[in-house]
Each structure stands twice: as structure tokens, then as C-alpha cells.
């Protein structure tokens, strides 16, 4: 009888621990879902076009850049399906810029909430990332329409866009963790990052192809995760003539590991820095 009682008690304890573990991880997920919905709804609240702005912004930028660089400067000469080639680069960069720009002041903007409620701070950054990710998926759907109109041949390589999008999400998230935590102490970060992103837009192979720059510069560019992601995405979706890091480095497969390692190491270091700093957020915001 004693053994049966002990077994029942052990079962109750185990069940209680499982429920506690479930609640521990369920709460952040529920909070994340609510923050994502709220952020997505409020972003264009009060505007006449609403959610359409998430599609129109990259399209307007595409139109301006296409007219200036393709029609006037003839920069797209020799690049197959250049309109789709350019639009894909703009869409991926827009997501990266949106995630990082919105994350910089995300913690400070939620200062009142941080002082009133104890919850995992990383949820704030994840919510902004997932909200922007919805915009990314919508813009990729628009790209699909452009590809159909432009009669871009789609092969089985198109499925490889999935790991590339995951890599993009990880890299943007890593920088978001770092920038948001740093901004709490140093408010100049927002201005520095804005200037950096303006310069980085033209430094990255978005408007032009890496084949149009010296090989030494192309090698440096493609070690950057953003440049590698953009060129690989163009290769798998638009044209197999888009130079990738594999081509630039003479067929060395291992070089692909460099930008991947940068993404993963950046995420680990940034998440660690964010976690260490998060205990002081409520006091400093």
C-alpha cells in the first residue's frame, strides 16, 4: 500500500512539473503571438492604404531605382530578368532594414510595460522580427507575380529559398538583439545605424551584380551574410547566371560556411549580450 501511495505521489509530482514546464514556455509564446498581432495592426493604423504600404514601399523604391539605374544608366545590361533581379534584392534588404531599424528602440518604447510586468524581454524583439517577416512573405508573393509576368523559369532550386530566408531571419534577429540592448545605454546607436544602413545599401550588390565589381571586392562582399543571401536567392529564383560565393571563390564549397558561421556566432553572442543586459532594462529605460 505504501509503495502504491508513493507511486501515486511521484506521478502527481511529475505531472505538476510537466504542467509547470508547459506553462513556463507557453506564456512567452502566447505573449509573442499577441505582440505580433498588435504590432502588425498598429503599424499602419490610421493610414488610408493600411497594410498595402508594406507592399508599396519596396515597389516604389524598385520603380525609382529601376528608372535611374536600368533605364538611364543602363546598369542592368547583361543581367537576365533584371527587374525581378532588382526587386528580389530590394525585398530582402527591406526586410533586413525594417527588422533592425524597428528593433533599435523597441526595448525603450516598451519601457512602461517593462516596469510593470515581469516577462521575457526577448519576446519584444522576436515580435518585431515576426511582424516584419509577415511583410517579407507578402512581398515575396508579389515577386512571384512579377516572375510570372516576366516569364522567369522556376526550377526545383526554388525550394532553396527556404533555408536562405531562415538564414536572413537569424542574421537580422542577431543584430536586433545587439542593437536594442546597446541602445538602452547609448542612444546615439539609432543615428549611427541609420547612416550605416544608407551606406550599406549601395555597398551591397542590390542594384548591381557582383560580376560588375573587381574580383577582390566581390570576394569581400560575399563574405557578408546579406550579400551571400541576396546572390544565392537570385540564383535559386531568378537566374543561374547570378554569381554566388561558390563561383567567386572558384568552386570552394567550404567558403559558404563563412557567412553561415557569422550568422550563428552573431546570434549566440548577441543573445548572450541581450540576456546579460536585460536584467537592467527596467531601471535604465
Give the overall average pLDDT. 86
Number of DSSP strand runs: 0
Order of helices and strands: HHHHHHHHHHHHH
Terminal CA distance reads: 58 Å
Major β-sheet profile: none
> In one word, what is the shape?
globular
Helix content: over 70%
- DSSP helix count? 13
Class inferred from helices and paired strands: mainly alpha
The whole-angstrom Rg is 23 Å
Please give the domain count: 1
Percent of sequence in beta strands: under 5%
Low-confidence stretches: none
Spell out the key features of this protein.
single chain; 285 residues; mainly alpha; 13 helices; 75% helix; 0% strand; globular; ABC2_TM_bact-type
How are the SSEs placed, and which strands pair?
Layout: H1 2-43, H2 53-72, H3 82-104, H4 106-109, H5 111-116, H6 122-149, H7 161-185, H8 189-203, H9 215-221, H10 225-237, H11 245-248, H12 257-278, H13 281-284
